[in-house]
């Protein structure tokens, strides 16, 4: 959603510059260049995973740009056949996008809520697809599972909000740790009384101090509960975290397209195509999978045009995916070194 209003003359000036050879953009970028992307993970101590991403932030005064905060939180859900139970076998994902009123001061509260709902629907429809579902959200099969909350907060919008949301979501999910669990089974202690005395013993109070009915064996066939052998913030990463998709927004000015639009460019070029690609790790050639697609704005696209744009979007998505993975792995190394330094200083 554009945060600025332009006259017809201003829109014409911007689109004419984009169509020139070579293209002319206000910030001097090429049509397929992104602005500076900053990424940080592990910024929320009480979350299971978190990230902050900014696109186009001014390096001199650290201001401006599109900025999004994302965090994940795991909650235990009971699985029941009752209609009121929302728990699912294998766990489920719940996504919510919120917008700071300061990011959209020109919108009314009702319009802002509708916009939040639209953004939430796009992310939830894409990320909750069964092909992306991690298989380590189950706790006790048929009884308990993890509900993974993913909350995103838009702090400021300086254009290209959809790409930024998917980048922040992927970074937070990459950073998420699922606590290790150990099944627990409760058994009544066996009585040593045999014969006719067994029936009498059933009416007697049994001393349970001698033998414990608490079992924490690794493999239990009738587990009734679970415990956490590690601290709540420890655990394993989400299974298949490499599969979480990225979004590429193609801003269309026939016969060209460009990436990472500024608010002025979004106001001048209202037609956009959102392409969400995932990269299954089993694919040695990193052949992307089109997870979702959506058109925004006015006008229509023919089937032939969409097919060509999908091919173009694949290349841009691979570049974005590769660059993001480098940043995420650098963040993992940075945080590991920081933890080692903190541990070393604590031992002195």
From TrEMBL:
One Pfam family of this chain: RNase_PH
Cellular-component GO terms for this entry: cytoplasmic exosome (RNase complex); nuclear exosome (RNase complex); nucleolus
Subcellular location: Cytoplasm; Nucleus, Nucleolus
Domain annotation Exoribonuclease phosphorolytic: ranges: 34-179
Family classification: Belongs to the RNase PH family.
Matching PANTHER family: EXOSOME COMPLEX COMPONENT RRP42, EXOSOME COMPLEX EXONUCLEASE RIBOSOMAL RNA PROCESSING PROTEIN
Listed name of the protein: Ribosomal RNA-processing protein 42
Organism expressing this protein natively: Agaricus bisporus var. burnettii (strain JB137-S8 / ATCC MYA-4627 / FGSC 10392) (White button mushroom)
